[in-house]
Specification:
heterodimer, A: mainly beta, SH3 type barrels, OB fold (Dihydrolipoamide Acetyltransferase, E2P), 3 domains, 16 strands, 53% strand, elongated, B: alpha+beta, BirA Bifunctional Protein, domain 2, 9-stranded mixed β-sheet
Chain lengths: 188, 321
């Protein structure tokens, strides 16, 4: 496997650290006066999503991580695994487990394309599109006369996510939701 | 692809030219002579933490390896030994591997030498130069290297046991420092914990570095009887701007330090660098005692123009050269 030296570190580079694949977020070269040089590096652990801050002696290197981000369409859940298919026309399918899917289970909708991150050809995470359109399956009926005047209520969407929506939203409506914040954007 | 374009705006480049003109006026008013010395030399910097670039060249002597300077120090000292009197230079310097928001592979050093000046007199003049470009800078503070460590980290760089320093450096940096030497630990702690706090309210001048970090400065003794380097560094807004020495003038000591540097380079798995024997010869002939300072003018211009990175004050930084 290739490796990268600190002077090749740049945002987005995928490397192995403590046995986990990581993406470099930021790399800063620091050197005091006449002294030894170091690199302060922020890395996102792709398994946990957590950001690590580490210092390396300049010239040290890290092994490259075989990590790929691919667009895949969500197909179905078989009770244990969630199945996705590459959108490149190859019809190649990948089964994603609960650990890799994490909290994003609540944003799954069939035929929508997600970014699936593969490490050594195994799915390790799934990212939903920033905005997604989902149907309201359950919410209290809107109160008469209380239309656009502020106020909100919880609504359960077809994917299982619960979001705060304005009082005038009814069951059966399709909403546009921001998956990054989990907030209602508009009626679709 | 638009990476043919400069990273500094043309308006910034005009401001840069104006500031460089002010620097030249500053020295003209003080009767300090502007000089130009070669970028290439038969000898290079042996400093274990500086990596020099070199190039094969065809000269009257045949095929030779010439070194690109990491600072114009050696050639300028030869001029001093030749009787030049006070001199300054805006010199292009090269340091391999140094690229980042505050470093560039090649950069411009403002370096000047003052025969007969004490370190304190040169600190005053360095402050005056900085205030010429940064008129709004706050007050000057003089900070001892060891006091900074005591206040920021509750350790003493001279007396705290090495194991304790290794542990602290490892914790702060999140890396393995168990086989690091004392200076390695101090460098890391200085970079991560102390530097960012310096120059936040004005101009901070750090003095009394450990003797092991003297480079080409004389040794001295501090108030607590420890050997220190007669050297200062100037910080503004967390940026290291200048590095000044009470210059070493003894040829024998200089030759010994070059040899020790190259031994340390070899131990660290780095190639040895050819020693500048003409500098040694110049010191033997006699260089006047005095002080000299090297100031990263790109960084000072960055601060003067309120920019966030070196790239904003350079036409074409390394990635676009």
């Amino acid at each position: 496997m290739a490796s990268y030296s600190t002077n090749e570190f740049k945002g987005g580079l995928k490397v192995m650290l403590d046995g986990d694949p990581c993406a470099i977020v930021e790399n800063e070269f620091v050197k005091p006066g006449k002294g030894q040089a170091f690199n302060r590096v922020k890395l996102r652990n792709l398994m946990t999503g957590r950001v690590w801050e580490r210092t390396f002696k300049s010239g040290e290197s890290l092994e490259a991580a075989d990590v790929l981000d691919l667009d895949m369409e969500y197909l179905y859940n078989d009770g244990e695994m969630w199945h996705f298919m590459k959108t490149d026309g190859s019809f190649e399918q990948y089964a994603v487990d609960k650990r890799a899917l994490g909290d994003n289970e609540k944003w799954l909708k069939e035929q929508v394309a997600y970014t699936v991150t593969l490490w050594n050809d195994n799915p390790i995470s799934v990212s939903p599109p920033n905005f997604i359109e989902l149907e309201v399956t359950e919410t209290d009926p809107g109160l008469k006369g209380d239309t656009a005047q502020g106020g909100s209520k919880p609504a359960t969407l077809s994917s299982g996510a619960v979001v705060r929506v304005p009082l005038f939203i009814n069951e059966g409506e399709v909403l546009k939701v921001d998956t990054r914040t989990g907030e209602y954007v508009s009626r679709a | 692809m638009d990476d043919w374009q400069p990273t500094a705006s043309l308006a910034t480049l005009r401001e840069r030219a104006r500031l460089l003109a002010e620097v030249r006026r500053f020295f003209a008013e003080r009767d300090v002579l502007e000089v130009e010395t070669p970028v290439l030399g038969h000898g290079g910097s042996t400093d274990v933490h500086l990596d020099s670039l070199s190039t094969p060249a065809t000269t009257p002597a045949g095929q030779e390896r010439l070194w690109l300077q990491t600072s114009p120090e050696f050639a300028m000292k030869r001029l001093l030994a030749a009787g030049s009197g006070p001199i300054f230079q805006l010199a292009r310097c090269f340091r391999d591997g140094e690229v980042g928001s505050r470093h560039n592979l090649e950069f411009t050093m403002l370096e000047w030498y003052r025969p007969g000046f004490s370190l304190d007199a040169l600190i005053d003049e360095t402050e005056a130069l900085i205030r010429t470009l940064l008129p709004a800078a706050g007050p000057r503070r003089r900070r001892r290297y060891r006091d900074l460590f005591r206040e920021c980290l509750a350790v003493d760089p001279f007396t705290t046991p090495l194991d304790a320093l290794r542990r602290l450096a490892g914790e702060r940096g999140g890396l393995d420092m168990h086989d690091a030497d004392r200076d390695g630990c101090l460098d890391l702690l200085m970079s991560l914990a102390i530097e960012p706090t310096l120059g936040r309210e004005g101009i901070d001048v750090v003095v009394d570095y450990p003797a092991s970090q003297a480079a080409l400065a004389r040794h001295a003794t501090d108030a607590e009887g420890d050997r220190v380097a007669a050297r200062f560094e100037v910080y503004v807004a967390g940026l290291e701007l200048a590095n000044g020495y009470d210059e070493l003038v003894e040829a024998g000591e200089q030759a010994a330090r070059f040899a020790a540097d190259n031994a340390a380079r070899e131990a660290a798995g780095k190639p040895a660098v050819a020693v500048d024997w003409r500098l040694i010869a110049a010191l033997e002939a006699g260089m006047p005692e005095g002080s000299g300072v090297a100031l990263g003018i790109d960084r000072l211009i960055q601060l003067a123009l309120g920019k966030a990175s070196l790239a904003e004050v350079m036409a074409f930084p390394a990635p676009r050269c």
